[in-house]
Description:
The complex is a heterodimer.
Chain A: H1 2-11, H2 13-19, H3 23-52, E1 57-59, H4 64-81, H5 90-108, H6 120-139, H7 151-168, E2 170-172, E3 175-177, H8 188-202, H9 204-208, E4 210-211, E5 214-215, H10 219-239, H11 242-260, H12 263-283, H13 285-295, H14 306-318, H15 341-374, H16 378-402, H17 420-437
Antiparallel strand pairs in A: 2-3, 4-5
Helix pairs in contact in A: 3-4, 3-5, 4-5, 5-15, 6-17, 7-8, 7-10, 8-11, 8-16, 11-12, 11-16, 14-15, 15-16, 16-17
Chain B: E1 3-5, H1 12-43, H2 52-76, H3 83-92, E2 108-109, E3 115-119, E4 127-128, H4 136-139, E5 141-143, E6 147-149, H5 150-154, H6 156-159, H7 170-178, E7 188-189, H8 194-204, E8 209-215, E9 221-227, H9 237-241, H10 252-255, H11 265-274, E10 281-283, H12 300-307, E11 316-318, H13 320-326, H14 329-339, H15 341-350, E12 358-361, E13 366-368, H16 382-389, H17 399-410, E14 415-416, E15 428-429, H18 435-451, E16 465-473, E17 476-486, E18 493-499, H19 509-522, H20 530-534
Parallel strand pairs in B: 2-7
Antiparallel strand pairs in B: 2-3, 3-4, 5-6, 8-9, 8-18, 10-11, 12-13, 14-15, 16-17, 17-18
Helix pairs in contact in B: 8-19, 11-14, 11-15, 11-18, 13-18, 14-16
Amino acid sequence: MMATRKKRKAKKPPQKKRRTRSKKQKRGDGLLYFGGFILLAVGYAMVMTAGLGHEPVLTSLDVLPLGFIASLFALFWLIFRGEGYRGDRIIPLLTCLLAGLGVLVQFRLGMIKWPEWTQVATYVFPLGIAVYVIVWAAFRRGRYAMLARFAFPCWLLAIVVLVGMLAFGQRFRGGVFLPGNLNPAEVIKPLLAIFMAGMLTQYRKPLQQTVAGLPAPPWQTWMGLGLLWSVPMALLMVHRDLGMMIILNITLLLLIFMATSRWGYLVGGLIVIALASYAGFQFFSHAQIRYAVWQDPFQDPMGRGWQVLQSLSAMFSGGLLGSGLGTGAPGMVPIASSDFVYAVWAEELGFVGSLWLVSLYLLLYYRGYRIADQIRAPFAQTLAAALVTLLAVQTLMNLGGVTKAIPLTGITLPLISHGGSSLLVTCAMLGLLTALSEPK
Amino acid sequence: MQEWPLEPWIQPQWLLGAYPVLKTLFGILAIVWLVALLRYSVQGPSRKAIGRAYRIFFLLIAVAAGGILFYQATWQLTGFARPDFVEFMRVYNHRPDNPVRRMVRGRIVDSQGRLLAVSSDDATGRRWYPQRYVMAHAVGYQHHRYGLAGIEAADHALLSGLVDTVNPDWGQIQQSILQRERLRGRDIQMTLDLDLQRAAHEAMQGRPGAVVFLDLSDGSLLVCYSSPGFDPNQLNPTLFERNDAAAPLLNRALRGLYPPGSSFKLLVAAAALEIGLQPVFDTPPDGFTATGANQPIRDHQYYAASRAGRRWRGYGPLSMREAFAKSSNTYFARLGVTMGGAQLYAVAEQSGMTRAWTIHSGSSATMGSVAARFPPLTDPQEAATAQISIGQGELLVTPLHMALLAGAAGNGGDVWQPRIATHISPQRVEPFFSQPTAEKLAEMMRQAVAGGTGRAADFRGVEVAGKTGTAQNPHGNDHGWFIGFAPAAHPRVAFAVIVEQGGFGSESALPVARTVLQAAQRAGWLDRNADEGRR
Lengths: 440, 535
């Protein structure tokens, strides 16, 4: 293998400089994949060992999660280490590791049972990885540029999804879901990201106009874009999907600021958001309840405050170093496998483990912004920034809700929470981001 | 699904011993991997730093994440400084390794101070129940996997050392959490008497059923025994998974619903006496047929005779007292229909037969009986009224209900709120019925033992008043009941005993009651001046 590669290098010296990287760097890449797998394998051994205390029987199906993690790492290593891939190397690696952690945590929580096909977590992780690879392959090598033409159709599709869910869905825990608790509304995140990127690229110039230092776009632009944006927002309000609204609006605000470099938008947007949240707070009783619970969960510790207080109790029990994977008591935290998966992590891996996990997410988003920074084409750049911001805000809102830093919004933790639609959409977004990272 | 049992040479202990090693390895690997990843990010192939605009974006995200982590640390690492939080965790954080509950759980003792539950002083804090099966249902259990039951659940907050004072000393509590000291939870004294409870356990011999004994002077439960039992020291999943009729976890004394059979005639008599009804009815061999009923209600003697191939001529005209002693179904069915279902229901409601009784309002939960099933009766439903008047039909009661009823008869109609722990002070409730009615009932019950169906209940030195019952049930053999009070002349305790599918009450439940009464006599519960002796 080495010999043939050397031979090829020798034959084509002009290409060597551009295409190949140094041997040292290549080894680092493979070692990271291998090390990540070993880390997860040790975690898997911990889960199994801890479980043996109660049921000293291994079933052959228990080995499957480890097999899946192994094939996941092997697949990513094979796809993304090769010469053919010229994009960011850390995003696939982190996607792979975080998805592996997701499988491990869900397996530990008993959500992955292979013969039971009703358990969504069982097949949603393999499916998510497939979606990631397919989206990446579909939009790589500059093919993402064609998405610019689909800005308006994406907006339309988002509306269709939201209206369709209202028509066919049912209410559960305050939100709207399709049967089987699918939440296709997640898909509007990438759709509206494409829409935002398209519109901001198209109307950058009018949006940049200022009067006396304040942003003053022509009223046609202003009204047009505002009306377009208000349709999905109004629908989300009917859905009572407060979390999604916050994620989308914060992203929009940051993107406008980035596209126009006008501070006025940031300041004005924050004022508008503050006013809108105050108005929404007056109208929606469930928002008031969530705010009250956040302010003082001890008012109703056994009722509304129960969830977040159990989450914090789990963290306190974990302490600095945690009880160790598989030895905590996740059964005490309601919805531990999905929205509150971070509480389980913090209990079993401790505060140090939380720091570690948050560092991984931060590195992922750092690399994401780095990709956006390096893209020249305005549409692709804005799209990359939109995708990263959406995921980052989602992560922060989940962590903040679980730790009671902000009111609960019922949002999943990307790649680790058990949530079918959310996981698939996250994978698609990261796949698109990976495609964007590759030069044409 | 194929299962691989562990090979004999792989001992689970070894694997469990490997856990700390794996945990350390995981920690080291995770940190090394993160450092390698960061190095790769900085020095790897795509190491160019990002521009200013996006750096601001990233910094915003990173500052927010840092803020969240800092806030998380104020709960995760220094949560002990939040009194509300600590209090919440002491009550509702049931984790075995909950740092806030590194304390010795309070003990549970019986009315004489004998140990019923105690926790070990070591780090495991393991709960030990020295009386095993005898006290299983009333005391319950505290288990890190199976949770809480019995008084362990009801007074969890007190036992686990939750503040029972108005102003807890938070400084001391926080100190103890930090220094990993072990505070001691409050001890709880139950009103139950271990000797009596053990007598009930031995007399029941594992047959399904329940025994309830009440102290008539203050409503204290002396016996609250349910059979079959379980060993709270050895809880296992099969105990919770099994769904059979034996149901060892069910506390039958409080939550077992049974047809009361003839023992319910006590209430029918009370309802009639309350409106001054004391008729003499003829009791012909072909019984009493209510309007709308398909079958006549006949006396037991009729069936016994026809089984033996003889004819029974009926008791003839009976007064209420005679009918009660002979437990005549014909008489009481007719009595019930004569006074009407509405009157019967009104007195049943007054006598607490339709509601759920709380026996303990603990610091964490309440403990009590289920509500009896008493179909509301209106006058046209004569057939149903006749059935209920002999304790059958859709009527279902718990042993506690019957013990309270018997106690009211012995106590001049007065009733105390039943209680199971001494730190709840005794409390009177509304009388079940008037004093003349109660005196009449007491006399009839004494008569039923002295010259009726309950003849075998008396023992040396103690006269018992009571009523047997033999309740038909759709699941098999008849349930045997015996309810009453003792001593007959100056009642001190009331009781209800049921033996599921035990046949005649006089043959199954009555000997159990007698055995426990003998134990009660030995323990001094039946003495005239028992109060002075005990307190």
